[in-house]
Design a protein that fits this description.
Elements (H helix, E strand, L loop, with lengths): L4 E5 L6 H11 L9 E5 L5 H7 L5 E5 L16 H7 L3 E4 L2 H7 L3 H13 L3 E6 L3 H5 L3 H13 L4 H4 L3 E4 L13 H19 L1 H6 L1 E4 L8 H5 L6 E4 L6 H8 L4
Parallel strand pairs: 1-2, 1-8, 2-3, 3-4, 4-5, 5-6, 6-7
Length: about 250
């Protein structure tokens, strides 16, 4: 059984004090939640968030990570830095990082390996644009992105990874893949992992859906057998909305 992971991606939102306030409001709302609950906050918010989550089941994550342990990489953060600041997870290769900051499949792989071997759980994002979907490239593209991201990992390491299928055309648009479309594409990713790392690894790796999952559509998406959680954007910025997603089973 794969335990679902509901992770909020705050992107560039909230100051440290706002993060602490939001977490205090969220804690009682998700106290009995069945999924693992993760908040991926801006790096400057991690110390305040670490203090705020004490005594709760909420885990913290970063939104990016560098592939080197240290060095002349202005503006970057290593796995050790993020872990000491309170992170247990790290989002890697989000479409916004790819589109705006030059992230490539190669750097996604290097960051994912660095996160994993630095003691963090990588949440690796893959997904297609609207044009790529309409051209029929979705399955080939997401399989390629996932396998490149996992390059150099052992089957046991792959079992620890989280993959987030985020159709680029659905992020922040209010659009979403149908429950069946999302499930089918995630199934394709799992089959690709099985082809290289074996069925045990593929059956263990958790694959989230991340295209505008919200309180209204979460139950249908989470009812699908291949979907193991969600990477939540806008709906994670308000405690009440995020709690509704986390508590989808109720």
């Amino acid at each position: 059984m794969r335990k679902p992971v509901i992770a909020g991606n705050w992107k560039m939102n909230k100051t440290p004090s706002e993060a602490a306030e939001m977490i205090q409001a969220l804690k009682p709302l998700v106290e009995g939640a069945k999924p693992t609950v993760v908040l991926c906050v801006p790096a400057v918010c991690l110390p305040a968030a670490k203090k705020a989550v004490r005594g709760s089941r909420i885990k913290l994550g970063a939104q990016n990570i560098h592939f080197e342990a240290s060095g002349a990489y202005t503006g970057e953060h290593s796995a050790a830095m993020l872990k000491e600041a309170g992170a247990e997870y790290a989002i890697i290769g989000h479409s916004e990082r790819r589109a705006y900051f030059g992230e490539t499949d190669e750097t996604v792989n290097r960051r994912a390996v660095a996160a994993l071997r630095g003691g963090l759980i990588p949440i690796i994002c893959v997904g297609e644009t609207r044009a790529q979907r309409e051209a029929g490239y979705t399955n080939a593209l997401v399989s390629y992105q996932a396998l490149i991201a996992l390059t150099g990992m052992t089957a046991d390491e792959v079992k620890k990874v989280i993959i987030a299928y985020e159709p680029v055309w659905a992020i922040g648009t209010g659009l979403t893949a149908s429950d069946e479309e999302a499930n089918a594409t995630i199934g394709v990713i799992r089959e690709a992992v099985a082809g290289v790392y074996g069925k045990r690894a593929a059956n263990a790796v958790r694959i989230q859906y991340g295209g505008s999952m919200n309180p209204k559509n979460v139950a249908g998406l989470m009812a699908q057998p291949e979907i193991d959680g969600g990477l939540i954007g806008g709906a994670s910025l308000k405690a009440e909305d995020f709690a509704k997603v986390v508590n989808y089973a109720e």
